Fold this sequence. Notes:
This protein is an alpha+beta fold. The chain has helices spanning about 15-40, 50-70, 140-155, and strands at about 10, 75-80, 85-90, 95-100, 105-110, 120-125, 130-135.
Amino acid sequence: MLDMTDIVHHRVPAGMVARVAMIAVGGALMVIGVQQAAVFPYPIDIHNGLLFVTVASCLVFGLGFTGLALFAPERHWTIGRGRVEIDSDNPFRRWRHQFSRHEIEGFSIRKDNSADGPPSWVVVLNTHAGKRFESRRLRHEADADKLMRQMQDAFYG
């Protein structure tokens, strides 16, 4: 456990509203897929291939949304002098990663262009074992730099 001097807390949320919305969307897609499968003309041939693709897509994407909502972790970083603890939990499981000074390779900033909107930045914790943990997405590079400096100051003391 970390002592309470010079600690930085950082939360990477996976909000309950987002989880419920994704379960609702996934459930609706699966219901549509099952309804379409009920009226599906058998046997499958070239003429009803589009219906088959529609049914399969609804089921696959519905399961994907539901699985992501149920199993995506929420993370809480606690960074103190020479130690990092990352608590992860989802509705079914809770686990903790603990790293000491000799296990951490360093902190870095990565630009993320994956979103549809403007680019965002994340602070990345890299370990010598090859594990990477990302902070929440930040809108400005200056905010990411500030967060990284806070984490480094707390970690390196």
